[in-house]
Amino acid sequence: MGNKKNIKQKIVLKGITASPGIVRGKVRLIRFPKDILTAKKEEIIITPFLDPDFITLLKKNGQIKGIVTNEGGATCHAAILAREFKIPYIAGAEKATKVFKNNMDIILDGEKGTVYEI
Question: What is the mean pLDDT of residues 89-95?
Answer without folding.
Answer: 95
